[in-house]
Amino acid sequence: MSFTDESGFAESETHRMMRETAREVASGYGDDYWRDVSDGMEPTEFWQDCADAGFLGVTVPEEYGGEGMGISELTTIVEELVAHGSMGAEMLFVVNVVFGAVTLTNHGSETQKEELLEPLVNGDLNFCMALTEPNAGHNAPNLDTFAEEQDDGTFLIDGSKQWISGVDTADEMLLVARTTPKDEVAKRTQGITLFLADPQDENIERRELDVGIPTPENQYELSFDGYEATEDDIIGTRDMGLYQLFDTVNPERLVGAAGAIGVGRNAIERAVEYANDRVVFDEPIGAHQAIQHPLADAYSKVEAAKLLVQKASWLMDETEGTEDMKKTAEVSNMAKLRASEAGHEATDVALQTHGGNGFSRDYMIVEMWKGSRLGTVAPGSSQMMRNHIAEHTLGLPRSY
Asked: What are the residue boundaries of the Acyl-CoA dehydrogenase/oxidase C-terminal domain, all occurrences included (predicted)?
């Protein structure tokens, strides 16, 4: 939806066409396909269809093979794909389009853009990001992975990362490492650098983590032991990587939020259909307010959260400058909080509506429920979203 002064809340023709195309792509992949994906099958065909539709390059400038659009279009696509059954598609877009295309577009060198953006847009190159660590978690300035510069100008990187998605299929990795010790920088948020890394390098050891949720990508713990990077591998400005990462983190949260809206819509639609069809004591269960009211509440919350996602996406595309970006971050955190909570509530209500059948994988509701629960933890937990709102919007003292 476009929030321009001219159109108000009217959906633009571009967004309408994108939604229609996303529905067409999603319609080619039913529940059986996504059950297989959650069981370990790579969604190769789906991803190529997204590439062919131009979805992977929606935020990439036209000179690099993209569509030259913005986050509003990206969140529109993701929401519609998930709303029509593409379970976990938001994770694929976060890892490849946000971590890869958005980061490189904003901060990559000309060489990096020329070499990597077109393959990303075409679906020929997969990306991942290594940020979170066992001892840091949400506290990114406290990360231990260190890139020590050598006399020849190269960097030797040692450390560990945890909960890293899609490493096994990735061709390139966005690696976040400290290049200047914390006690040598003016602010703890300085001294961190973004590197382009080879996730298949022999000096990176990976261990798959056993998770109990359906995802289109496997999760890993990584160990870096003398991984070598060069100055040409640096993305953006050395020691200022955390500030540059903000341009990646906010879109990450909004794409995740769009996925939460999509899964909420999908779950409610399935629950309404089931409530109309399921007859107990000679009438549909949907005739009872005990079924109606929770669904009505969940639907209204999803729709309200959707407006916040749209507003934050618009702000991200239209505003520039420090103060504007501060406001964008505030609304993005509110959008992520409300969308992930509303999406999970919708799947929970849908599960309750289905009763015992809701726990059967044949109905997919329990898969949605588990996936939406992840959304309240990552990317960025609900608690951290509330911390940000309290401190930066309400002016309360820092709590962490």
From this structure: 240-392
Beta bridge partners, 234, equal 195
Whole-number Å distance between alpha carbons of 359 and 372:
15
Provide the CA 282 distance to its chain's centre, in angstroms.
44
| Contacts (Cβ under 8 Å, ≥6 apart) of 91 | 165, 215, 216, 217, 259
Which CATH code of 3.40.50.1240, 1.20.140.10, 1.20.85.10, 3.10.20.880 fits the domain covering 242-393? Answer: 1.20.140.10
Q: Following CA atoms 41, 42, 43, 47 in sequence, which dihedral angle do they give, to the nearest 10 degrees? A: 180
Q: Supply the mean pLDDT for the chain.
A: 92
Q: What is the CATH number of domain 13-126?
A: 1.10.540.10
**CA count, 13 A, side-chain hemisphere, 236:** 25
CATH homologous superfamily for the domain 128-239: Butyryl-CoA Dehydrogenase, subunit A, domain 2 (2.40.110.10)
Global pTM reads 0.92
153-181 confidence digits (pLDDT tens): 999 999 999 999 999 999 999 999 999 99
Query: What's the confidence (pLDDT) of residue 321?
Result: 57
- For helices 71-83 and 13-27, the axis angle rounded to 10 degrees is 40
- What pLDDT score was predicted for residue 71? 95
Cα–Cα separations (whole angstroms), residue 115 to 53, 86, 105, 388: 21, 30, 12, 36
Both tokens assigned to 120 = 């990303």
**Which segments of the chain have a pLDDT < 50?**
1-7
Q: What are phi and psi of 46, to 5 degrees?
A: -60, -45
Take residue 213 and report the two structure tokens written for it. Answer: 């949720």
pLDDT for the residue 116: 97
Contact 235, 107 (CB under 8 A): yes
Cis peptide before 134, with omega less than 30 degrees from 0?
no
**Ranges assigned E (strand) in 289-365:** none
Q: Are 97 and 56 in contact (CB under 8 A)?
A: yes
- Whole-number pLDDT of residue 8: 61
Between the CA of residue 93 and those of 96, 120, 153, 251, what are the distances in Å? 5, 11, 34, 10
Q: What are phi and psi of 83, to 5 degrees?
A: -60, -20
